[in-house]
TrEMBL record:
Is involved in the conjugation of reduced glutathione to a wide number of exogenous and endogenous hydrophobic electrophiles. It comes from Populus trichocarpa. Its EC number is 2.5.1.18. The lineage of its organism: Eukaryota, Viridiplantae, Streptophyta, Embryophyta, Tracheophyta. It is found in: Cytoplasm, Cytosol. This is Glutathione S-transferase.
Amino acid sequence: EENMLDKSPMLLQMNLVHKMVPVLIHNGKPICESLVILQYINEVWKLSFPICCPLILNHLSQARFWADFICDSGKRILMAKGEVQEGAKKEMIECLKILEGEIGDKLYFGGEKFEFLDIETLPCSA
């Protein structure tokens, strides 16, 4: 776990651009940003259950949209203060309500398959 108010030297070294988490370090090399990390995992380990490649192209574009939106909203909540932060929180809550309606009675956003949108929304369920 990383203290975002007192960032470790390792984080600062491994994520030179944003200096934020998440960062996956594989073979000593950093891979930054949630979606990039998920795509990297899927490519490197050629998983038998693709976590970031839904079979239906339309579903993939929708999943990427929501994942980007959640990631951006989360960053605004963490980095902003005051009214901007409160606005970002309200936006995130509305987004999660829409996603809750989308998932309905399904186990995962992709139906029976655990995909990258499910991973991206995990921090929101804590």
